[in-house]
């Protein structure tokens, strides 16, 4: 059985004789077919391109709004940038043209003496060139009491030159507390050998926690720390005693001894016990015993300040009840 063959010529010939409703239906079908083929061929790609262009237009409008805001604040931004440039140029001019290591070493030794610590190691490391400056690091080893070491580090930041502190390590050993750090100073390689202007002193951090307990010692062995007050210079020609070569922090009070009306303090350092009376000297800072009580010993120490004048500072050794 074979299907009848569709004869388009006969179909179109007979369509002319169709009634009007059939012609209308056929015309609508042909118009719909033409619209569908045209939309798929021409209108759909154009519609996609239109949507892409509209999305790009929204992005461009947002960028135009942002650029307009930047343009409105351009003058203020330019003024701030010029102020930052002037400030940076001023800071660069304040850097010395030479390394000035000898002067810095003298300042470090002076700060160590002023704060009652022993600077026993200074290693000058190689200079480190940077894009805008040259960095000069120094490795320091300092021994002393907790609060004295903190005051020493605080004083480093108050020097007239720029000094920063890095790689701080603190540990306790047989000689007391050992502080190791790297101090860095800086110089300007492009100053042409001209002397740097005086640095305007800025806000300085000052260590003021002297009243707090030393976390590295038991409460019974605490040494009182108070700021120094102006005093007369000590007799530097006086013969120093054996106990003046030992740091005060190495002593602990273990008791008292009375002989008639006179009272002696018994202080132990390492494996030896020493007897001191009022007026005896103790420690490297010209410490002199001023009072002896059953529970503590009062000392008065002398040390140079940062300007070379002399200050006096009282210290207290408290009885170790566990001795």
TrEMBL record:
It comes from the Bacteria. Gene3D superfamilies: 2.30.30.830, 3.30.70.60. InterPro entries: PilO, Transl_elong_EF1B/ribsomal_bS6. This is Pilus assembly protein PilP.
